[in-house]
């Protein structure tokens, strides 16, 4: 994965970098999955592809990538106020927060303050 970033950074062949990145992602490297998601979202691998971006971001989240977990929580939270969606978002925020992701920690605190997502309202835990 680092080789792909190095190739692009030094003005190397984007196609070759993509091959290395794809290979690392196929081998379940969470950082490679997350980076591939970004490349698809930004259109660095052709036309921006939100479906491919979502696929790779979700895979990165499932593999434990904190930023991808936070992103998954935000995606679910943005889908509506259904308590099940809020609960699923809370799970992703909590996973990410446990890894030290600051924005996810803020989300968990907010959920405690509001008493949503399965968190009881607790201003002390909200921080």
What does this structure look like?
With 127 residues, the chain is mainly alpha-helical. The protein is 72% helix and 0% strand. Helix 3 packs antiparallel against helix 4 (50-62) and helix 6 crosses helix 7. The radius of gyration is 17 Å and the shape is elongated.
SSE blueprint and pairings:
Blueprint lengths: L1 H8 L4 H13 L3 H13 L7 H13 L3 H12 L5 H16 L3 H13 L8 H4 L1
Helix pairs in contact: 1-2, 2-3, 3-4, 4-5, 5-6, 6-7
* Order of helical and strand elements: HHHHHHHH
**What fraction of the residues are assigned to beta strands by DSSP?**
under 5%
Morphology: elongated
Radius of gyration based on Cα positions: 17 Å
- How many strands appear in the DSSP assignment? 0
**What oligomeric state best describes the polypeptide chains here?**
single chain
The biggest sheet, with number of strands, parallel, antiparallel or mixed sense and barrel status, is: none
- Uncertain segments are none
Give the helix/strand class: mainly alpha
User: Treating each run of at least 4 consecutive H or I residues as one helix, how many helices?
Assistant: 8
Distance between the termini: 37 Å
Instruction: Tell me, rounded to a whole number, the average pLDDT.
Output: 89
What helical percentage do the residues reach?
A: over 70%
């Amino acid at each position: 994965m680092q080789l792909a970033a190095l190739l692009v950074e030094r003005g190397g062949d984007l196609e070759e970098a993509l091959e290395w990145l794809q290979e690392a992602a196929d081998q379940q490297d969470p950082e490679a999955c997350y980076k591939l998601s970004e490349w698809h979202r930004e259109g660095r691998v052709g036309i921006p592809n939100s479906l491919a971006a979502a696929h790779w971001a979700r895979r990165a989240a499932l593999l434990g990538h904190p930023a991808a977990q936070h992103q998954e929580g935000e995606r679910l939270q943005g889908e509506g106020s259904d308590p099940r969606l809020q609960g699923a978002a809370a799970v992703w925020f909590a996973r990410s927060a446990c890894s030290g992701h600051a924005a996810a920690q803020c989300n968990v605190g907010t959920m405690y303050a509001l008493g949503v997502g399965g968190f009881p309202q607790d201003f002390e835990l909200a921080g």
